[in-house]
Amino acid sequence: MLRKDRELGREEAMRLLKLAKHGTLCLAADEMGYPYAVPINCALVDGALVFHGAPIGTKIKVLGRDDRASFVAVLSYVGVEARFSADYESVIAKGRVERVEDAEERLRLLRAFTAKVFDVTEASIDERVRQALGATWVLRMSIDELTGKRAPKA
Fold this sequence. Notes:
The chain is globular. Helix 3 packs across helix 4 (122-133). 21% of the residues are buried. Helix content is 29%, strand content 44%. Strands 1, 2, 3, 4, 5, 6, 7, 8 and 9 form a nine-stranded antiparallel sheet that branches. The protein is of the alpha+beta class.
């Protein structure tokens, strides 16, 4: 990282990642050779990022060829014209994405994901998760590398 004065320790970067509800999942090249990045909801569960989605589409095709990924979350951003800069907090995680196939684990992770990302009651979580489970893939990304950066207010 170029600006070491803005670098966060792993513990603080993990704390920020735990707060994130969405970010950008960055994957290897698509069929046309372009890197593929997709905005996506997320939840940090048991030290790994959890995503969900349809069992078809570009994301699934790309992951079928290469499971390596980066995930970027910007938790706050305020442009500061007077400094021609910005105040922000961001994290970048690198790891590998796997499809979670075990039914009980999928259910557990999807419950945790739903509770984190959506403002729903406990009672409606089970109902929503059971409705979605059949047509939804649950993806888990290991966090092999994690960096965080903060540009504090002056």
